[in-house]
Amino acid sequence: MKASRLFALSCLLWLSAVSSAMAEGFALTEWSSRGLALAGGLVGRADDPSAIAYNAAGITQLPGTRLMGGFAAIAPMGTIQATQHGESNHTQTKPNIWPAPHGYVTHQLNDRVWLGLGVFSRFGLGNEYDSNWMGRYNVTDITLQTVSAVPTVAFKVNDVLSLSAGVEILYGMFGMGSQIPTYSMTMQPQADNGMDLKASGWGFGAQFGAHLRMNDEWSLGLTYKSKVALKLLGDVSFDRRTDNILAMTGRVPRAVDTDAHGTVILPDSVSLGLSYKPLDNLRFEVGTVWTRWSDFKSLDIYFDSGYDAISPKNWRDGWNFNASVEYSPLDWLTLRGGVWYETPVVDATYADFMIPTNGRTVLTLGAGFKWDNWTLDLAYAHLWINSLDYGSSRAAGIQGMPAYISGGESRDTVANIYSATIGYTF
């Protein structure tokens, strides 16, 4: 019991952190090490506590009480190549490692009803550039950090069908920095003025799942996660107050510290997974996830000083296609691997440097270890992120005065993800 209390405390310490990551769009799926190693292929399997994140209806397969917790470390990197003032320039993103913790508990009440609680991140984003880089009038740094708590109930209808429902309580923090061009009253250029936005807020949603165990070999999972309107309140600060002639025309904000507010629409999604188990120690799964990114039409922040930062997005809906295999050569060892592909969602007309991604392919590997009531899962994923072209972009701070960036693209954008998860069964 002492060990289990220590484990639970460790989970709480991890979950007190916030998560942020680079992803297609900015949806995350790194909700457990086993799930990552299986390329998200736990919708049809859904047979460990992290099913609360992937398909909570599957927790009816888990007798007794179970705990699970861990984290993923996400390390993105890439280069922006563009032409500015007739010269070609290359800028690399700053090296960062973004943590994404997760934790789960499930409990069987009786033969029909299970309860669960999951704490994980559905959405996250992080990117940072030098403060004097060529795209500084668009963005110098951006973070979206979210943590969702999802209390869940699952009901076993019969030996074939299980259903689940959960309430999502999401807390998010948003930050963005950029440089503001400044001019004197005589229109002489002055040093740039750094602008920093910090905001946070709450949003609420719902999650539903269904799991069909058709026989000992085949199972099917289906989940729906609702959209969440994240209402943000915060403030904007500047490196210094300036006499900014451009502010009089409304093209840039007045350089005065002020409160700000806005709403970010985090999209809903539907997941489907089909699992096949031809042998007791061998299992496959194929699946797909559809995300309604078309709801992300604009990122709008309103300053109490009277300036409105309107940033059109007009993204399109995205698809994730995944396949995975799991093999246990020994009672205490399981080997895993998977692959997934995500379709592009960014509208090139409004492409900016906040999210330099245009679809991605991911290869995943992992291993699971079991001894007594304990499990340890390890996973690694490598992401190849497609180049995003900025030749037709009309995003603020890219083309036109004062940036004068023409053409360009993201290049050699990749990410590495490392994950570890510990589980305990009472």
In the sheet with the most strands, the strands line up as 1-3-4-6-7-8-9-12-13-16-17-18-19-20
Write down how many β-strands occur, each being a DSSP E stretch of 2 or more residues: 20
Shape: elongated
Unreliably modeled segments: 1-23
Strand content: over 45%
Overall mean confidence score, pLDDT:
88
User: Which structural category fits the helices and strands?
Assistant: mainly beta
Portion in helices: under 10%
Give the helices and strands as they follow along the chain: HHHEEEEEEEEEEEEEEEEEEEE
Rg over C-alpha atoms, rounded to the nearest angstrom? 23 Å
Question: Termini distance?
Answer: 9 Å
- Supply the number of helical segments: 3
Biggest beta-sheet profile = 14 strands, antiparallel, barrel
Brief sketch in words of this structure:
With 426 residues, the chain is mainly beta. 5% of the residues lie in helices and 57% in strands. Mean pLDDT is 88; it is low at 1-23.
